[in-house]
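Protocol step 4 of 6: record predicted structures for both targets in the notebook before any analysis. Target 1:
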Amino acid sequence: MFKSKTFLYFLFALFVAPINLIGQHISLNYHESLFLAVIVGSALALVFKYILDCTIVFNRKNIINLKTFLTYTFFGACITPIVWIVEVMFLNIFGTVFMRDIGAFLGLALAYYIKYEMDKRYVFKN
């Protein structure tokens, strides 16, 4: 069974998904660039998730630490291809948008689990 830290980590991942989408929609109200909207939404979600993980999941007092934030961001960027690979695999194997979405969901779950383990061991280590 998952420990409470792991549960909170995944819960916060679910919490920041709408923040990402809200950021995208706000950006699209001012610019028509979907690329820019994805960057804005992702950046907003990243900052919120970092603050939640740092203060609540890993019980850190000093959240303003550039090295920790950059390491956290780097590991997030490293696991992103996992989501894409699983998503595209499901699309290619099953050939439907529904199964592509299932693949994206499974890829996200796997990626967040790997990210949690990396954060625990390397980013927020004691």
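Target 2:
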Amino acid sequence: MKARFRDEELSDEWVKQSEEWIGAHKQGPFFLFFASHDIHVPRVAHERFQGKSCLGPRGDCILEFDWCVGELMEMLDRFGIAEKTLVVLCSDNGPVLDDGYKDFAVEKLGDHQPTGPFSGGKYSVLEDGTRIPFIVRWTGHVKPAVSEQVVCTSDLAASFAALTGQAIAENQCLDSFNVMDALLGKPGAKGREFLIQQNNGGTSFGLRMGEWKLVRQKRPYKTQAVVTKRPVVAPTQLNSLYHLSDDPGETRDVSAEHPEVFRHMVELLDKLIADGRSTPGRPQPHD
């Protein structure tokens, strides 16, 4: 019976369930993961949002998502726990328009450019595939500001563990760093020194270090099979270096102009892949 639901009512039900759950746990520590379906395909907004954005189902679902966030924030205020609750709003990847559904996401885009000045998109290691909206709110603790520090969603595990005094085992969260001070916007706080990225097919990598970005992509090339004499496709690696301050769209490879930076980042990426982790070893928790 629980599987008999209308897609149009999912967001309303998740907001309702969240309110009941927060109300039941407001007296003690709690963790709520609100995994909204908006704006993922199939994009189906409630009837009261349909047609309101003039941008098709995609725009309508963005309106619905905004409403959900507003409802959650109002709950925290109403329950009197806004000053005790850290809120993080983020996505899991950069934008994508055409997911194979005929929902007019491309046709009704208008002048809006979801990719901004960046290249790529969902599934890629280019900047537009990995740069995401990331907002932190903690009433009374975080001052409104824009941060230039680099953080990653994988850092939330180590950061929350540090905030709550929890230990992380040696074989867990191998790419999670404690960037809590940067998340809270503390003066002088630093984010990551580097960030390794991987596409969802596992064929490409990115390494971000400050204003530098190394992109390693596997590209096929045709060769002649020794026995069959038929052309076959084999993978080859191509490393490119980009200076994001001057070239946020990653359009110009400057590896030849900066050989020392290029060599250092190639070696670091090789080491991180070989190590299977980017964090240093952690002390084992004591019994």
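Step 5 preliminary note on target 2. The longest helix spans residues 56-78. The mean pLDDT is 90.
Proceed to step 6 after PI sign-off.
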